[in-house]
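Hi X.,

You mentioned you wanted examples for the new student's onboarding notes, showing what a folding record looks like when two proteins sit in one file. Here is a clean example. The first protein comes first, with its sequence line followed by its C-alpha cells.
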Amino acid sequence: MSTLTLTISQFLLYNIFVVNFMYGIDLNDEITFFHASERFFKKDDRHINRIGYCDVLLLVYEGVLRFNIDGEEVEVRSGEYYIQRKGTIQKGTKPSSSPKYFFIHFKANWDNSEYVLPYRGYFSFYELEKYLRNVNSYFGTNNFYIDKLNSFYTILLSLLKNPKNESLASKIMDYLRKNFLEIKSLDELSTHFAYSKNHIINIFKDKYNTTPTSYILELKINNAMYLLEVTSMSIIDISIQSGFNNYSQFYRKFFEFNGMSPEQWRQRIRKTEIISPFEKKA
C-alpha cells in the first residue's frame, strides 16, 4: 500500500490554498434577463437610494460611479464591472465623477464556488460594445428577445473569460505566498503592483473572500505551526522565524487562530498523524 502522509500544518496550508473560492452569480443555474439601458451622469450626480429589486450588472466605460451598498463604499471605474445583488441597500452617499455606463437588470442565484462569475471585475468596452448596444432597450428595440438574450449571455461569458479578472488577484496571491515573511505593510504591495492599497484589497477580497493582511497572518501562523511540529526550536525563535515582531503578539494571534497556546499545540500535535485525503488503499 502506498500512502502520502501530511503533517497537520501542511494539511491546513493545503486547504488554505484550495478552498478559497470567489463570490458571484452561479453560472450552473438559471439566469433570467429582464432589460438593459445606458445611463450618463452629470458632474456630481449621485446614485439613487433604493433596495435592489433585482440583480444589476453595471459596466462603466467612462468616469467613476460611486455608491454605498449595505454600508460599504464602492467605486466602479472605467473598464470595470460590478454586480449589485437583489435585496441590497444601495445609497448615493458620495457624488460620482461623470460616469457613463450600461446597466443590465436580471435574476440569478448567487454562490461561493469556482463556478461563478465574480461580482466585480474588468471588461473590454471595445469587445463588448456591439452586444451592449444590442441588449439596450433603446438601441435594440427592433431586435428579437432571443437576440438580446444571446447578447446578454455573450457578455457574461466575456466577463468570465477576461484574463485581467484572474491575473492581478492571482499575482498578489503568489507574491504573498513567496514573501509573507518579509512584507511589513500593504504599502509594499501598492509599490510592487502599482495600484492603490484599496484597489489591491478589493481585487484580492473579491476573489479569495479575505484581505491580504488576513491571508498574511494565516500564512505566518501556519508557518509557526509547521515549525512547532517538525523542529525543536524554542517558541520565541519560532515566533521570530514566522515574521512576528514580538512574542506577545505572536502568542495572542496564535491563540486566536487555534484556541490554544503554541506550547499546547506542540504537545498535542506530536501525538497526532494526519493521512492525506488522496491516500489510496491497496
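Then the second protein repeats the pattern, sequence line and then C-alpha cells:
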Amino acid sequence: MKRAVSILFLLLSCGIFSAVYFFNLRPQPPETTQNNLPQIELSPRLSNEEFQAEHLKLRTVADAKGLQAAFETLKSDMAQDEKVLNSCHELLHVFGRSMFEKYGNFTEAVRYQDEVCVSGYIHGVLEGYLAVEPRIDVALKEVCTDTEPGTYRRTSCYHGVGHALMFYSQNNLPLSLEKCDLYRDPTDNSDCYSGAYMENFNMDQKEHLSTYLDPSRPLYPCTVNTKNLDACYAYAPLYFLGLHKDDYSGALAVCDSADKAYRASCYFGVGFQYVRRHLKDISSVQAVCDASTAARASCISGAAYYYLSYHLSKDKTRTMCSTLNLEDAATCTEAVDTFSNLLKDFK
C-alpha cells in the first residue's frame, strides 16, 4: 500500500525532482560510501578555442541554411567528436543566445527547436530574451505558456527560465528564485528553481561564477535555503565535481553529510552528473553508484534520468539499463518507467 501511495504521490507532485522521493521510501542501510572506486578517466571537452570555433561554425550554417541545418551539423559533429558531444549543452546555450540576437524575437528564435543535448538551445534563447526584455515580469508570464503540461518540453522550458534568470541577474540567486515564485503552478515553480540552482552550481560558466558558492561548504546554499531543496541538493554535486575533478566517491561522501531528508536527491545528482560527463562510456556508473549501499538506488535513478533526458527515448534508455547488473538494471528500468509516466513525451 505504501508503494502504491508513493507512486500516486509522484504522478500528482510538483516537479520531476520530487520523483527522487520515491527511491528514498525504501528502507536504506547505513551509509557505506567507499573511497576505492576505480580510476575513471575524465571525458574530453572542447577547449575555449574549439568551443568558439564550433559555435562560429553553427552560426555560419544557421545564417546560410537555417536552424534545422545547424542542428543537423551539430549532431553530425557530436557523432564524430566526443569533445563536441560532451560540450554540447553549454554550446547550445551560447548558440541559443546568438540566435535570439540574430532574430531579435523570441517567437522567431524558437520557431524551429530541437531538444537535443537536454534542451540547451531553448535555455540559451531564454537567456538572450530575458537579458534584453525590459518588462521582465510580463515576459516571465508569457514564455512557456504554449507548452503542454506534463511534458518534457514544458519542464525543460521552465527549467530554462531558471537558467535565464541567473544570466539576466548576473547570477543573483535570491533574485532569480524570487522571480521563479511568480509561477504559482508548483511544477513550473519547481522546474524554474531547478534551472536557477543548476546555473548557480555550474563551474563551466563562460561569463561569471556565482557568488553563492563556498568551496568549504559544497552543499551551500542548500543548507540555508528553505524552498524546493530537492532540486538544490540534486545539483549540488555539479559544484563539488567541478572543484574536485570527477571525485565521485568524494561527492557521495558529501551527500552523506546532507540533511537526511535530502540525501536521496544528492545521490540522484551524483548519478545524473556521472552520465552527463561520460555519455560515450557509462560502464563505470555501477562502480560509482554501488560504492554506497545508501546511495545506490537514487544514484542509478539519476543516471537513468539524464540518459533518458539526453536521448528522449525510453527504449534506448531501457537498453542501457539492461547492461547493468541485475539489481541496478531493475532500479534503472523502474526509474525510466516512473519518469516516463511523469513526462509523457518521452518516446
